[in-house]
Amino acid sequence: RVKEKWAVTRTKYPATTLALQNFDATYSVQLGQLWPSVRAALLSERKYGALLNNYCHDDVQAELQAKGCKDFPTDKEIEVQPCLEQEPEVAGEEESCRVSVEKSDPDAQQLPPLQLSPNIKCLVFPRGDITRFKPARPDMFGCLGYYLMDAASVLPCLALNVQEGHNVLDLCAAPGGKTLALLQTKSIGFLCVNDTSVSRTSRLRKVLQSYVPKPFLSEGKLRITSFDGTKWGEIERNTFDRVLVDVPCTTDRHSLMEDDNNIFSKNRTGERRRLPQLQLALLLAGIEAACPGGEILYSTCTLSQVQNLSVVEQAIHTAREDHGIHLQVVDLRPLAHMFRKTFQFAPNLPLGVMVVPHIAANFGPIYMCKLRRLA
Ligand code: SAM
Asked: I want to staple 117 with a disulfide (CB 3.0 to 4.6 A). Which of 31, 59, 95, 162 is the partner?
């Protein structure tokens, strides 16, 4: 605590104001006419989704449905748009790192619709309904019925398309919302959960213990580590069928709401500027950790093009040039189309898809891009 009267070190603006100034300058250019409405939503109360716990014995889904909630993954639009090639192409200052991407099958329109990870259920109140969820209750064995999280954060887990017996790595996993969503698939052969922060990893461990019965968390099924994820390629290369790289970012919504521990505070300027570098190193490590044919999902909770598109473009380029790893971008636009009733997606992104906050569907921001290792 500082006494306002005497504080010589007090900065002129709180970190939340600095964040808003930064966003106004960059996102008004990046999002154009969309920015004023996204800005209003970001400054308003966010909406949560209830990730249903398939390990809980109570019929929580029926309870929530009786209150008007819908499970958004099953409430999807089934008519799927043709799979079109997605080219990384950006205008503006990030053009320097533009790369060409392996073209997928020219007969892309014949490809089967995008496959999603099974069994993940997330209940949300309808558009415009801002009812809050009550805290989850434990069942007779102490397992909580649901986990409250931004419903858009479930999308990267659905998009990862985990299949039976897969070996999965969650490289930046704490506090564990996405790990928990991945475990709901009940399909994973072995799950490696990592986060460099020891305190956040122990929080993750507690989250898992509150939701998943012990036998499913045994050593044969799950490993929790606190390594520096950027070094993963040196530890375990060419190993995982699926890799989730949910990187640290400017966490736009949090940065507008909380002055404490805010990445826009003056004493964290260096750390903030180094974020794209760290994100790139983490994505490259995730790419190296995936096996040939394996899939990597990069995600953030920022609208920043420099932390999203530019990082992915640079990673594709560096993987090919420095590591001889060729990647194919998996088109996630069918997923955006499927879930357009629940979320607002940014239009015409050259690479990946992004949920942008909307006052009537106040989820996100979440950016995600999926890559497939060819060799
Ligand atoms: N996936 C998590 C979830 O759904 O709950 C959220 C992850 S959060 C966006 C990013 C995480 O990256 C933070 O917990 C942070 O501690 C971790 N992190 C930062 N640098 C890292 C590194 N070098 N290696 C691994 N994890 C790192």
From this structure: 162
